Amino acid sequence: MAVPNYDHIVVVVMENHDYSQIIGNSQAPYINSLAASGALLTNYDAISHPSEPNYFAMYAGSTFGITDDNHYSEPDPTLDTILQGAGKTFTGYVEGGATSYDHNPWESFPEGFSVEKDFSTFPSNGSFSSLPNVSFVVPNVNDDMHNGTIQQGDTWLQSNLNSYVQWATNNNSLLVVVWDESDTDPSDHVAAILYGAHVMPGAYNTAYNHYNLLSTLLAANNLTGPRNAATATPIDVFSPGTGGTLAGQVQLSGATEGVALAAGTTVASFTDTNTADPAGGFNASISWGDGTSSAGGISGANGSFTVSGGHTYADEGSFLLSVAVTRTADNATITPTGAVTAAEADVLTPQAATITGTAQQALSNVTVATFTDSNSANAAGDFTASISWGDGSTSAGVVSGTNGTLAVSGSHTYASAGTDPVAVTLTDDTPGTAAATANSTAQIGGGPGALAGQVQLSGATEGVALASGTAIARFTDTNSSDTAAGFTASITWGDGTTTAGTVTRANKGSFLVSGGHTYADEGSFPLSVAVTRTADGTKITPTGTVVAAEADVLTPHAATITGTAGQALNNVTVATFTNGDTANPAGDFTASITWGDGTTSAGTVSGSDGSYSVTGSHTYTAAGTDAVAVSLTDDAPGTARATANSPAQIASGAGTLAGSVQLSSATEGSALASGTTIASFTDTNSSDTAAGFTASITWGDGTTTAGTVSDANGSFSVAGGHTYADEGSFPLSVAITRIADNTKITPTGTVVAAEADVLTGQATTITGTAGQALNNVTVATFTNSDTANPAGDFTASVTWGDGTTSAGTVSGSNGTYSVAGSHTYAVSGTDTVAVSLTDDAPGTAKATANSTAQIAAGGGGGGRAISSPTTGPVVLAATNGPLTVTNSGAITSTGGNVDGVDGPANATATVINFGSVSAAGVNGAGVYLQAGGSVTNSAGASISGDYGVEIAGAPGTVSNSGTISGTTDAVLFVNSGSNSVVVNPTAAFKGLVDGGSGANALELAGGTGSISGLSGGSGTVTENGSWSFASFQTVSVDTGGTWTLNGGNVPTIANNGTVNVSGSLDVSSAIDPTSSGLFQLTSDATLEVAAAIGSNARMTFLSPSELVIDNPLTFGSNVGSASYAGSTLQSFGAGDMIDLKQFGQTGAATQYDTSTGLLQISNGTQQHASLDFQTSSLGSGSFHVASDGSGGILVTLS
User: Fold this and answer.
1) What's CA 61's distance to the chain center, in Å?
2) PKD domain spans which residues (predicted)?
């Protein structure tokens, strides 16, 4: 690192001791303390012997070839002359003033004694700033250890230089202690210590000597040493980064009163052009601008730093903040400043008070309101209060209280009794902005008695008079001697009218105010009654609300509108209406007319006494009959509305057209001749001819053709030809246009194209071998009387005669079709193959051909059929024996470790069971396949043993429609392949079903069923008929399947397992929160879950499907908060639904965070639900909620 630009350097030269004689010597404690706290050069060597050439090397950069201590005269330059030439200073301080050429090197150069002073002139007591830039200190021969002891020299150094040592560290100065030469060390190894500002303490093993020292002394003054010192590297023990330029700015601009800025808050930042300076080389002091200061923490590197600190502003306001940053290496300081605005934190909440008193008697310092402040640190003195007493006078209030609870008190004298609204406003002092008003009530009694009252009237009906004696309000008077004649009352009805009220005495001290009024319109009206006691002016004004109900009952009456195309209808009556409320004027209603030709306009309402007419103006462009909808609507807040459906019969100047469709039936594939009558129409203008019309026939099957118009004298027909390619019901329309005036009618009807297919099946004989696949063989042929229908209009089903059915492939044309299929028969024999060919909907044609399959037995590995009781084991062999067995009888094995059916060790085998297979004893399996294969257990069939089915060695498949039971396991796969278990609704497993260690699949087939256990690891058997499935990575629910997962075992979909739902899956118990699997919902799938699922699980909506959540309030963790964690919902879009059960719709609202995908749902009963959507796969649109019809809500996206 660069040598710092020191203000002062003092070099003390000691004499004639080896490094090892000084460092670590207990006789030199002070010197060793300097070595421990400063920089100790552990590889520093002198240049020569004796002393004088070493002093010359330190002062002039050369020994000049001398080898003794005699007096010489040598030429400049030297340390002194180089410093003097740069305007710097040098002094040699010599203890005792005695001349010693060998220790005072400047005496041998031209400057001589001009630079020498006695050591007694060396500054003391802290006045070291007067020292020259560089000084040499030469003790006498006793104190420099030449003749004296090490302890004597150590004591002298501490006594004479320690004050400078302490001063130098904080004043950009340096002390160097060095020995001129060694005593006995052959390499001239001596001690050298540097102590002071910018020195990094430690031991440095770099090789240095006196030339390096001279180079360092001059480098500190930006100068280069003479002779050998010119190429000597300066000593490198200094802290990095001295001298860089600092620049900074305040970063903090905002805070909130009373809210602590955390200790790590960034307050300022600064840069340093010397990127080597560390954060530890700076200190910072933050003046917060509110009279407080604190130390700042500094972090950063590479020339970029931040200053952080913590503070709390006690009050709002703008504060001038400054940060003093000092680099300790050179005391360079910057002080960036900036303004911090401490925002208002006070949120005032008013609490009204009830003030009681008596007219003419002073209220002294009474509490008129209280307030709470969210900023509990603000003092009462920070607020002012104003009190509006409600009688036209205002005064200041007195604020008291602490810890966020404040009270306002005031004094006042009311002139008269009554109830007065007292508005108490509390305001934060400037620059605060917080303010709140409490609306308190002053109940002021009179000397004779206190009054209190309330409005009695709450309801009326528009247009219906309230009788003059209707009770409007009631009030009480504590002075029982007051009479009704002593009061006046004024009723303000809330609709702009005020009338006098009649006061009557109800009983002792209780009075009624009555009056009569008619509300002209419906609505909600604020009603007040001013009651005044004439004796003392005491007044109360009870208030209330009167709801005037809707009285309008509108009855529509259609009108018949007649006109001519192209001629304006001007202000014609289009409908009339009667109203049950005869008082409402026509101006209270608006009308809208939909003319039936695609246009709408406003109507004009007229009439009175409950009878109204609606008129409008319009011009029809074409003749015909149009449906005119006329709506009459009461003005807001009225709700009355009625619609009259009037017909507009618009004639043409040339004649009126009317028509109907005549064609009603056809046959698929059979052509309607071109002259077939399709429709007929009439024209009142008998002079019109067929040539004056055009016709277009829309057949309803996607085709449109031109029609031919014929006949005359006002009666016409439209003819055309067409062939319906398929059966069905088709909407037919005929657009007829008169060319002269573009008058158009479009009569419509329905054509039923009848079924024309008559299918005839031809059976065939199918031959094959058991165990060998039949691939795409023709299983039947069919002929069709309708030769136009393509093969694609038909579907085929093949029932193979061995209990299996598959779809067939239909091919052919011109009424001749073939059906092909693929199948493998397990056993030999003759099977009846039923092949059905069916026309697609709405076609009804169907035929069945009963073909014959003649299946021969194969060689080794063929099939075996068992139909009678058989003693096991039945052994399947890869050679000279069957690999397939079909059992419709009973296979029974007895004794220990004896299987019912044994598969070979070197080939897969197939077991088809229609009967029963059982094994007895420990380790006996009903079916044991050693090398993989498949086991099909039909409905009503059973397989049992210690192990029901065990498949080892290679992958296997178990399809169960009957019962498989095992004392140890119902099904066990002992292989690492991909095994599968197909569960049909009639199946029962008694015992554990273990999928093994591979990627295994569990398939829940079509139909309705339930299972009671599913886990990612081991499962347990709980009781007879209770199932537990373990180690399946994929669970699939087939289309048409409706399955419920229940029972005691909490299911876990772990290890990134997958649940594919094509049908319906109801998980009625909780899914383990540790689940990390994927639920995939395909078209029309439904997944119902009861409770929480862990946040690692995912649910993907592959096509329109539904997720049902029984307990949405516990679906995930931290429900209703921003830290919600739950299953990720992927690819949710239009058509998908999420049903939140037991979640009320009233007040339901959604809040969606587009950045996180979090949807928060709440309702009026404070229920909360949360859903986590994957934003990258979410469909477009916004979320909507609606009732699911059963106490929950549906969430959709559109």
Assistant:
1) 75
2) 269-347, 576-645, 781-860
Q: Which CATH number fits domain 554-651: 3.90.180.10, 2.40.30.10, 2.60.120.620, 2.60.40.10?
A: 2.60.40.10
Cα–Cα distance measured from residue 145 to residue 16, given in angstroms and rounded to the nearest whole number:
7
Which uninterrupted H or E stretch holds 29? helix 29-37
Secondary structure of 46-87 in HEC code, one letter for each residue = CCCCCHHHHHHHHHHCCCCCCCCCCCCCCCCCCHHHHHHHCC
The CATH code of the domain at 246-343 is 2.60.40.10
Residue 665, CA distances (Å) to 680, 695, 716, 842 in order: 16, 20, 21, 15
In order, the DSSP letters of 1164-1194 are: TT--EEEEEE-GGGPPSS-EEEEE-SSSSEE
- What fold, for 451-549? Immunoglobulin-like (2.60.40)
Across the chain, how many H-helices and E-strands are there?
6, 94
Per residue in 1135-1174, pLDDT (tens digit) is: 778 888 888 888 888 888 888 888 999 887 878 888 888 8
- Strand (E) positions, 857-941? 861-866, 870-871, 874-875, 882-887, 890-893, 901-902, 909-913, 916-919, 925-929, 933-937
Which value, in Å, is the radius of gyration of the alpha carbons in the chain?
Answer: 54
CA distances from residue 674 to 723, 737, 765 in whole angstroms, order as listed: 10, 20, 47
How far is it, in rounded angstroms, from Cα 324 to Cα 331?
11
Side chain identity at residue 378, one-letter code: N
Which residues on neighbouring strands pair with residue 1036, listed in sequence order?
1003, 1060
Closest CA to 806 of 830, 822, 826: 822
Alpha carbon distance 1060, 1079 (integer Å)? 6
Q: Which CATH number applies to 8-230? A: 3.40.720.10
Residue with tokens 């649910």: 1099
Q: Which phi and psi (to 5°) does residue 228 adopt?
A: -65, -25
Bridge partner list, 88: none
Amino acid at the residue 332: A
Beta strands in 459-518, from DSSP E residues, in sequence order: 459-461, 466-477, 487-492, 498-507, 510-517
The residue assigned the tokens 């009037």 is: 646
Rounded Cα gap, residues 1185 and 1137, in angstroms: 10
Distance CA 57, CA 80 (A): 13
675-702 pLDDT per residue, tens: 999 999 999 888 889 999 999 999 999 9
User: Helix, strand, or coil here: 1147?
Assistant: coil
Pairing of strands 1098-1101, 1149-1153: unpaired
Residue range 239-255: mean pLDDT, rounded: 80
Tell how strand 624-634 and strand 1158-1162 pair up. Answer: unpaired
Residues in the chain: 1198
CATH class of 657-754: mainly beta
Only one residue has tokens 């009179």, namely 446
What CA–CA distance (Å, rounded) separates 123 from 414? 87
Q: What is the pLDDT of residues 411-461, one digit of tens each?
A: 999 887 789 999 999 999 888 889 999 999 999 876 566 788 999 999 999
Which residues, in sequence order, are bridge partners of residue 451?
477
The CATH number of the domain covering residues in 348-445: 2.60.40.10
Which CATH architecture describes the domain 759-855? Sandwich (2.60)
Distances (CA, A) of 711 to 679, 688, 716, 1020, 1036: 12, 10, 5, 88, 68
Say which residues have a Cβ less than 8 Å from residue 751's Cβ, sequence separation at least 6: 663, 664, 665, 666, 699, 700, 724, 729, 730, 732
* DSSP assignment of 159-198: HHHHHHHHHHHTTTEEEEEEESS-SS-TT-EEEEEEEETT
The answer, yes or no, to whether the previous bond of 585 is cis (omega within 30 of 0) is: no
Q: What does the alpha-carbon distance between residue 423 and residue 420 come to, in Å, rounded to a whole number?
A: 10
